[in-house]
User: Fold this.
Amino acid sequence: MRGTVLYSPGDIRCEEVADPEILLPTDAIVRLSATCVCGSDLWPYRGLQPIAEPAHMGHEYCGVVEEVGSAVRTIRPGQFVVGSFATSDNTCPNCRNGYQSSCQHRTFMTGAQAPFLRVPLADGTLVALSDQPSAEMIPSLLATSDVLGTGWFAADAANVKPGSTVAVVGDGAVGLLAALSARQMGAERIIVMSRHEPRQKLALEFGATDIVTERGEEGVARILDMTGGIGADSVLECVGTQESMKQAIGSTRRGGYVSYVGVPHQVQLDGQQLFFAHVHLHGGPAPVRRYLPELLALVTEGKINPGKVFDLILPLDQVAEGYKAMDERRAIKTLLRV
Assistant:
């Protein structure tokens, strides 16, 4: 089959790769209905995250089960499934506490930008739908695999409650879906920090009430001004840079909550600033598997349409353009037809 391989910064190719096979009795092979490019894929693409050798890319996926290993009990060939970017047995202590992305047997998925994918720990990683979905529903189902699940975790980890004021730092797919998640959780005011008109428009469609274009100290001052000098109850950091984390902490009210779901790069916390900020911090790789049943129900019942974050659709053999468009911020998120 053909799949996406990153050789070095900026050098992304669609080329022949090995077909996936059952390697362990707990594996499944899934024929993908669609896949996509993640914002986190841009870190190695930009050279900000080193790779030791050519890397088979992709970790977001949904599709139909083709084959299962001899130990798989709950997943069957023919089922339409969605899985997390982190595998999980869903039985270890970390999984039982709701942190499947820290499963004691976790591996991080890769190789999903291709027509077929091997999924380890299939019983604990995959969630099956009761019926085959319509083609129109595929983008939204694909979004639950990572960006919606991560945005949902951002809102949950920041203790978003009905009536609360929320600020979202970051207008990528995760930040936009964090705004959608905050709206679903009942937030009254949702402030999205964005300088890009198409993203601002989608943020408002997803439930944002206010847009702030300032960044850094000016962005913090703007949030404080909008909240009567108090700060937001919950701030969702969806970028992963030093500036975005500092901005998030500074925008939070005393006793408020900061979640961080952007993969951190060179982020260091100032202990004195944190000490006097009096905020709660919680984040990390999103335990998407915890939320998948609820998110899939919201999608299949037509209550949310997170697939709108895919504003560029390309065939797999044009994946290089998909990466370039996202890198240049001409696209929010690229869906790949396989």
